Amino acid sequence: MEEGAEAMKEALLTRNKRGQLCVDGGDDRRYLGKRVWAESKMLWRVAGPAIFGRVVTYSMNVITQAFAGHLGDLQLASMSIANTVVVGFNFGLLLGMASALETLCGQAFGAKKYHMLGIYMQRSWIVLFACATLILPTYFFAASILELAGQPPELAAQAGMVSVWFIPLHYSFVFVFPLQRFLQCQLKNSVNAIAAAIALAIHLLVTWLFVYHYKFGLFGTAMTLNFSWWVAVALLMCYVYCGGCPETWNGLSMEAFSGLWEFLKLSTSSGVMLCLENWYYRILIVLAGNLKNAEIAVDALSICMSINGWELMIPLAFFAATGVRVANELGAGNSNGAKFATIVAVITSSIIGVFFVVLILALHDKFAYIFTQSRAVINAVDKLSLLLAFTILLNSVQPVLSGVAVGSGWQSAVAYVNIASYYLIGLPVGVLMGWFFRLGVLGIWAGMIGGTVVQTLILTMMTVRCDWDKEALEAASRMDRWSSIQK
C-alpha cells in the first residue's frame, strides 16, 4: 500500500516538474502568454456558455419580478419576498448540495472514469429529492414565518400565498441542478445554454399570454416561472436520455442507491457551504422588512439584489468553470495546472467585475426604471447604488475562490469560514449599524459587506497557502475510494 502511494506521488511530482516549466518560465514572456491563452480558452469553454445560460435563466426570474412590479408596489414586494427569500432559501440549499457533483464528476472526468458520472448524478437526484421533500413545509408556513420575522401582515400573507404557488418550481431544482453539473463537468455547457435560451423564449411568450392577454395577475406570473423551469428540465432530460452522453450515461441503475451515505455527507457539506452564502443577502431583505416604510425599503433592496443577482451569474459561471478546471486538473494529477487555472480565473473575473462597477456607478439613477416607475423607490435605489457597486466588485473574486474550494473538495472547511465571517461578524455588525446607529438599509448592507470582505480574505489565504501536490494526491485517493464503494 505504501509502495503504491509512493509510486503515485513520484508520478505526480514528475508530471508537475513538466508543468512547472509552464508557470515558472518568467523570462520567456511569449511562452507564458501562450500558456495564459491556452488556459483562458479552456476556462471560457466552460464559462462562456455558463454565463449565457445562467444570465438567461436568471432573466426569467427578473422578467417575472418586473411583470409583478407593474401590477403594483405590494405585488412587487410580495413576489420579491416569495421568490428571493422563501424560494431563494431552498434554492441555495439544493444548489449547494448539487455542487457535490462538481467535485466528484469533475475529478472522475479528469481521471477518465466516465461511467461514474451517470451514477453520481442519479445519487444526487435521490438525495436532493429527499431533501426537497423535508423542507417543503417552509412553503406552506411561509406566511406565518414571515410575519414572525417582522413583515407587515398584508405583505406576509400575500408572499405566503405566492410561495405555495412556487412548489412546482421547488421540485424542478431537484433535477435541473444535477443535470447542469453533469453536463458542465463533461464540457457540454453549450447544451445547458441552448436549453436555457429555449426556456427563456417560451417564458416570454407564456408570461405575455398569462399576464397581459388573459389577465391572470400575480397568479399568472408565478405559474409562468414554474412552467419555464420545467421546460428546461425536460430539454436536458431529453438530451441525456436520447444519446447525448454515450460514455457517461448508461441508463437508470440500482447502483445509484449504493454509497448514498458517503454521497449525502459530501452533498450536505456542499449544501451548507453554498447555502450560507446564498442565504446571507436574502436575510438582508427580511431585515429591511422590519424598518419604517418597509414596502419602499423592500422594493428598493429587492431591485438592487435583482441587479446584483443578474450580474452575479457571471462570477457564478466562473465559479462553475474554476471548479471544473481545478477538479479536472487534480483528477488528472496535474497540480500546477490547477494552480494556474485558479490564477487565470481570478484575474479574468476581476476585470469583468470592474467593468460592471463602472457601469452601475454611471447608471446609478436610471437602472431602477426596469422594475418600477415609483419615484420613491427609484430614489431609494439611487442611494444604495454605491453599496451595490462595492458588492459586485467583491462578488467578482469571492465565487471564483469558492469554485477552487469545490474543485478541491474543501466544502466542509469553507462552511465553517462562512459561518464565522457571515453570521458571527457580518450579520451582527449589519444589525448594529442598521438599528443602533440608525443607518437603516445602508447600515445593514454595509455591515454585511464587512462579512463578505472577511470571508474573501480568508479564502484568499487558503488558496495562496494551498499545497497543490497534496491536493492532487488526495483527488487520486478520493477517486479510488469512491470506485471501491461502487464495487
UniProtKB/TrEMBL annotation:
Full protein name: Protein DETOXIFICATION
Species name: Platanthera zijinensis
Keyword Oxidoreductase: no
Entry keyword set: Membrane, Transmembrane, Transmembrane helix
One cellular-component annotation, GO: membrane
A GO molecular-function descriptor: xenobiotic transmembrane transporter activity
Entry membrane topology: Multi-pass membrane protein
Main location: membrane
